[in-house]
Design brief:
Blueprint: E1 30-33, E2 36-42, E3 49-56, E4 61-64, H1 71-82, E5 90-94, H2 100-103, H3 106-113, E6 117-119, H4 121-132, H5 135-148, H6 155-162, H7 166-169, E7 178-179, E8 186-188, E9 191-198, E10 205-210, E11 215-219, H8 241-253, E12 260-263, H9 272-293, H10 300-308, H11 314-333, E13 337-341, E14 347-351, H12 354-357
Parallel strand pairs: 4-5, 5-6, 6-7, 11-12
Antiparallel strand pairs: 1-2, 2-3, 3-4, 8-9, 9-10, 10-11, 13-14
């Protein structure tokens, strides 16, 4: 499961400061803070990389996120363990959340090094649910979601490109794990790292903040230049992930603004408060566009076109639809629109006028 499409917000980078000019080349690491190393792994998507982090615990390494389950990623890890990381053993694998670019090799790495996996309970349970889902169940859920959105004709193409999807990009999970808990900090790299929970992009994303270092490993919750995908999943069609995302962003805004943010994509940056404010403003703008699109009634597919104004390949369409539904569900709960089912089983969304609401 990639996190596309993320809507570009490059103009907002003017408010941020980027202290590093270049990212590490494949198979290399860069020191970004005392005891904190940065490496990158390739991704076979439009967003073609993920940033991973290594914490120097003195007697070993803590690896933060893993990359996708692929031969390229496994080969690069092998090169790292034979090169810049060869001096010490791996002590533990810590994953911010369940998406395959972060979690794909968690099982492979923990087994290869005989070390524990650290992850929040909701993230690993979500991964286990998806991995256990049979094709007939997953197709049924997707079919219902696409039909209700008025996109039933696009379903066969999406299913054809999805293939194994999540299962094909995540190695077998370990049976045991250590649950990350926001009330229990993690000691690593000579610092105390507080777990800051992000929601909406995934159920219980674990970001890590070390006050003594002034460093935040933000996962996908706070990214520069792009907004993380916030989607309704087909197994929870009436959920409200955007509300959870916006509310959990305030936990990050409560951190010092001079924090060095180490994101999972793009470049490390300063300007945490500005970036959180930009993300909130972005989604408020998208909510306005979605509500306007519902003025005379519209399907989710029609609202999606108004929000993104571009065509999608079958792979990206699933993420665009999920994000559109997240905004529509937020507006429903907020009392701005209503959802009405037609005899054909297609939902239409209609804005509630101010007079009617009053």
């Amino acid at each position: 499961m990639t996190e596309q499409p993320r809507r570009p917000l490059n103009k907002d980078n003017d408010a941020l400061r980027f202290p590093l000019a270049e990212a590490p080349a494949p198979g290399t690491v860069i020191d970004v803070a005392p005891g904190v190393k940065w490496l990158r792994m390739p991704l076979p998507f439009a967003l073609n990389h993920i940033n991973l982090w290594v914490l120097d615990d003195g007697d070993g390494w803590t690896l933060i996120d893993t990359g996708i389950n692929s031969s390229d990623t496994r080969g690069l890890w092998a090169a790292l363990f034979a090169g810049p990381l060869k001096a010490k053993p791996v002590k533990r694998i810590l994953c911010t959340h369940y998406h395959p670019d972060h979690f794909g090799l968690a099982g492979w790495l923990t087994e290869a090094h005989g070390v524990p996996l650290w992850v929040t309970r909701e993230e690993i349970e979500t991964a286990r649910y998806i991995l256990a889902q049979t094709p007939d169940v997953s197709v049924s859920l997707a079919s219902r979601l696409y039909t209700r959105a008025g996109l039933g004709s696009a379903l066969p193409a999406m299913l054809a490109v999805r293939g194994e999807g999540y299962k094909g990009r995540v190695s077998a999970l370990p049976e045991k794990y250590i649950a990350l808990d926001p009330t229990r900090p993690v000691e690593a790299a000579g610092a105390t790292w507080r777990i800051v929970i992000g929601e909406g992009h995934s159920p219980q994303l674990a970001a890590l903040y070390a006050a003594s270092l002034g460093v935040l490993i933000s996962g996908d919750q706070v990214l520069p230049g792009i907004s993380p995908n916030v989607s309704v999943r087909d197994s929870q069609p009436d959920s409200n992930p955007l509300k959870a995302f916006l509310e959990s962003l305030m936990r990050f805004r409560a951190l010092p603004n001079d924090t060095l943010v180490l994101p999972s994509h793009k470049m490390p940056f300063y300007g945490l408060h500005e970036r959180v404010d930009q993300l909130i403003a972005h989604h408020l703008d998208r909510l306005g566009v979605a509500r306007t699109a519902c003025a005379n009634g519209a399907t989710a597919g029609e609202v999606m076109q108004a929000m993104f104004r571009r065509d999608f390949d079958p792979h990206q369409l699933a993420f665009a639809l999920g994000e559109t539904l997240a905004h529509l569900n937020y507006l429903i709960v907020n009392g701005d629109i209503v959802r009405e089912e037609t005899p054909a089983g297609v939902d239409r969304y209609r804005a509630i006028s101010s007079a009617a609401a009053a």
